[in-house]
Amino acid sequence: MIHYNPKSWFSLIFHTYNRQVIGKLLPSMAAMGVFTAGICYIELEVLEEPMEVSNVVHSLLGFVLSLFLVFRTNTAYDRWWEGRKQWGGLVNVSRTLAIRVREFSDDAVTHAHFRESIPGFVKALRDHLRPSQPGDPTAPAATEFAAAAHAPNAWAQRMERQANTMMKAGELTEQQHWLIAQNLERMVDILGACERILKTPVPYSYSMFLKKFIFLYVVTLPIGFVATFAWWSVPVVMLVFYILVSVELIAEEIEDPFGVDENDLPLDGLCETIQGNVEEILGRA
Fold it and tell me: What are the pLDDT digits (tens) for 111-134?
């Protein structure tokens, strides 16, 4: 995740991320420049006079396209913000669980168990949400859950069984066990919410038609622009292409907030925060 000063206009305008986007779009922009130059050559050099095409249609289509892009970016940002809220809730519930374990029990073994299990659940969730990244999610080691296919569930089950064992042994009252169980239930709810975001992408038809709409709009721009801008149509079309496609690229990047792109959520930092908080509350090993 990129950290920046929103009041520093100059640094934002010339930030390296802008150059990365331009570098990613440069081949397509060059292709659009060559295509536009070809249209300009045909209309200005081959034909006796440029085709007189009204820009009214492009103006109307541009308005409709802008509405589509606004809805697209808002939808992508909603997914990003929902993921951030869920991980913010996970930070809070992890602290609460650690505090309750610390206050309800003085047993060092119990503290060590939750000191390992709470960060273990969080890191397993992070890896579980990045299925395309190298490395496999880590299941609890040296337990009956070591071969679990769903590592976050295994960690949650491990903590729930420990809480049940403590209650049966008389270390926890039913009320105290219920309070701990509430935190574990909340952690599993956060797991489900994150999986919902991950496994429910923007509908295919919507994304496909928006890309087609952008392509058709930009490809037909030179025909209407040559009569007005002549050879200046080449940089104008390339600029319009850059603006429209870069907005779509931003939406594509943030609609999956759990990846490792520059604008994705800082899951590694959140995991370190949770681990540091839990170790402080329950005592370092």
Answer: 999 999 999 999 999 999 987 655
